[in-house]
């Protein structure tokens, strides 16, 4: 595992800031210790420095993963978030969307959220803003990108797309062979 380069860090933080804004510093400087991001086979892992120091006893070729996988870099050096990052993004999310119970299953199968399935949306959500999707019982289900702003959602057709699907917790079942 190696530290991220400046360009990789910039791309990662730009992606995270779409979802949690300035709260990125809360991910790194936590009350229970200092955490950092490390790269292994194009995947970015979020790990505490304590565990990172202990992992130096394991050779690089034998180390498969360490910490929580936040996502991976594509071949074009774009960063794609994985669903495994949801537990860390949800508490710090700036913009949230709640889905009705009838639309939860559709979202968990990988479909976009329609206006008819929208329960609530955070005020002042802009178009193409990263959002965390919750059930009406405040359980984080995944994340996506707002297709419409809050103002546009109020006067839309019920069958129009409100949130573009990015990732959901159903991936743990659908992609269990490839998810790391």
UniProtKB/TrEMBL annotation:
Mind listing the GO biological process terms from this record?
ribosomal large subunit biogenesis; ribosome assembly
Classification via InterPro entries? NIP7_N, Nip7_N_euk, PUA, PUA-like_sf, PUA_sf, Ribosomal_synth_fac_NIP7, UPF0113_PUA
PANTHER family hit by this protein: CYCLIN-DEPENDENT KINASES REGULATORY SUBUNIT/60S RIBOSOME SUBUNIT BIOGENESIS PROTEIN NIP7 (PTHR23415)
Gene Ontology MF terms:
RNA binding
Residue span(s) of domain PUA:
95-170
Role of this protein: Required for proper 34S pre-rRNA processing and 60S ribosome subunit assembly.
Where it mainly occurs, coarsely classed, is nucleus
User: Hey, which family's this protein in?
Assistant: Belongs to the NIP7 family.
Name of the protein in question = 60S ribosome subunit biogenesis protein NIP7 homolog
Alphabetized UniProt keyword annotations: Nucleus, Ribosome biogenesis, RNA-binding
Keyword Iron listed: no
Q: Write out the annotated subcellular location.
A: Nucleus, Nucleolus
Write down any Gene Ontology CC term: preribosome, large subunit precursor
Species this protein is from:
Lepisosteus oculatus (Spotted gar)
Assembly description: Monomer. Interacts with pre-ribosome complex. May bind to RNA. Interacts with NOL8. Interacts with FTSJ3. Interacts with pre-ribosome complex.
Q: Which CDD domains match?
A: Nip7_N_euk (cd21146), PUA_Nip7-like (cd21151)
């Amino acid at each position: 595992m190696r530290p991220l380069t400046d360009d990789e860090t910039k791309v990662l933080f730009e992606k995270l800031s779409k979802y949690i804004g300035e709260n990125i510093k809360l991910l790194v400087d936590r009350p229970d210790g200092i955490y950092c991001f490390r790269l292994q086979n194009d995947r970015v892992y979020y790990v505490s420095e304590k565990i990172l120091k202990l992992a130096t006893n394991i050779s690089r070729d034998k180390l498969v993963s360490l910490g929580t996988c936040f996502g991976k870099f594509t071949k074009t050096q774009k960063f794609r978030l994985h669903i495994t990052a949801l537990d860390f993004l949800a508490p710090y999310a700036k913009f949230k969307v709640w889905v009705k119970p009838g639309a939860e299953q559709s979202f968990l199968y990988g479909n976009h959220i329609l206006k008819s399935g929208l329960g609530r949306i955070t005020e002042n959500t802009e178009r193409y803003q990263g959002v965390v999707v919750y059930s009406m019982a405040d359980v984080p289900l995944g994340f996506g990108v707002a297709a419409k702003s809050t103002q546009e959602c109020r006067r839309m057709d019920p069958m129009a797309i409100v949130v573009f699907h990015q990732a959901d917790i159903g991936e743990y079942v659908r992609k269990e062979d490839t998810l790391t």
